[in-house]
Structure formats: structure tokens, C-alpha cells
Design a protein that fits this description.
mainly alpha, three-stranded mixed sheet, Major facilitator superfamily (MFS) profile domain-containing protein, membrane, 11 helices, Growth Hormone, Chain: A
Length: about 280
Amino acid sequence: MSDAAIELEFARMHQSLIEEPEQGKASDLVKGVNKKCTFVVFMIGMFQQITGQAFAAQYRAVFIKSLGTINPCAMTLSNSCISASAIICTLLTVDKIGRRRLLLVGSVIQCAALCTMGGLGVQKPTSYAHKSGIVACLSIFVYGFGSSWGPLTFVVVTELPALRLRDKSQRVGALTNILFNFLVNFTIPYLLNAPYAALERKVGFIYGSSSFAAFWFVYFYVPECRGRSLEEIDIMFHEGVPLRKFKDHPRLRIEVRPGDEVDEAKLAVSSQAIHLEDK
């Protein structure tokens, strides 16, 4: 690592410590700029669950068996491989493609797959070809989820919160995730089976609509933090940078003047430069 890179990281950490001098209280989560972070963390945790991952994961084998088209065990193993492959690809490419873009594309794939599944399930009686299409749509959904909302939820929840509130924000995200996971798992049997809603394949319309809403939430509220340090993200929130403008916001850079000493520096931050000056 070059001297300039070390000095830049020091400057960001120094500024972050200046702005976040102590651990925050739980009430700080809904104050000032922290309200944005808490809102995004809550919604990200919610959308990960209500877009249908529990249906595709916990009820997949039972659902496929009810169709009578393919061995549910073989399809479960196949979908597990698809999911693992998608997650690995995402982890390898997320810093090149970006969190926001992957979440948007993943939401489109999920919405298209689930709504198509619901459409194929409308016709009665459902033909073998339609049932095979439903199984294929489920696999496409698994790929879309594994390449976006599955792994990236935890990335976004970790990156966005203020440093002094990061542990509390992550608790909010985890609690939200667990709560909606329970609600979705609890309601799935009632949505699928008679004598309740008996939607069967048409449940895809419900989760597809949630994926549609997730797309617009990401478009308007999830910032692109690719290539940004945690300290830099924190500074942008304090500067009031609009969430959709994070990607285009000027990168913070450091300028060290001749004779300056980093360990005795006074830090002055702007969105254009970080100057180190003698005290």
C-alpha cells in the first residue's frame, strides 16, 4: 500500500471519529441523518423475506411434488446448486457491477419469474407443459434471489449505518428479517391450500408484486456504495448527499502539503479534498 493510500485511509478514519465521538443510543437511530439509514435497513430486511424466498426455500419440495412433473428431491438439489452458483458469482462481481444494479436486476428477474408462474397457474386444468413451466420459473426465481437479495441484503445493512450505531442498526436489520421470515412462513400454508385462500400457483402474483415494489424501493432509496470506504459513506450521509447521487458524488481525496506531519494534523473535510495542516 502506498503512503498516499495510507494517509487517505487515516484521514477518513480521523474524520469519522471526529463526527462519531461516542457510541450512540438506540433513540439516535431515528434522529437526523440516521433516520435514512434505519429506514433503508428496515426495508431491506423486510423485502428480502416478502419477495418469496421462504416459499422457494422451505416449501419448494412440497410445492413441486404437488405438480407431479419432476422428482422434488432432484429439483431441490438442482435449485440448491443454482442458488450456490448465483451467490458465488455475485460475491465475485459485486464490486465491479455494484450493489444497486444487482438488486435492481434481481428484483426484475424475481418479479418476472413469479408473475409468470402465477399466470401459468391460472388455467384450469393445468397442462403438463404449464406445470413444467412453473417449475422452471421457480428455478429462475432462485437464481434471481441468489444473485441479489440473498447475499446483498447483508452487505447493504453492514455498509450504510453510522459507525457509532452500526451494531444497533444491524440488530434492527436482523430483527426485521426474523420477524418477516416468521410472518411469511406462517402465512404460506394458508395462501396455498384449501379451505383457505387456495391460491396454489397463483401465489406467484403476491410475491411477484412484492418484488415489483422492491425494485422501486431500491431505485429510489438504496445508494450505490461500490468502492467507498465505510468512513466515506458516513461522511456522505453527514453532508446530506441524496441517496441516488452517491455513485456520482466526487471521491474524497487527500492532499499532503510539504512539511505536513500526518500524526499532528488537523483534518478539514470537504466533498472535494481532505487537507492536512499543521496544528
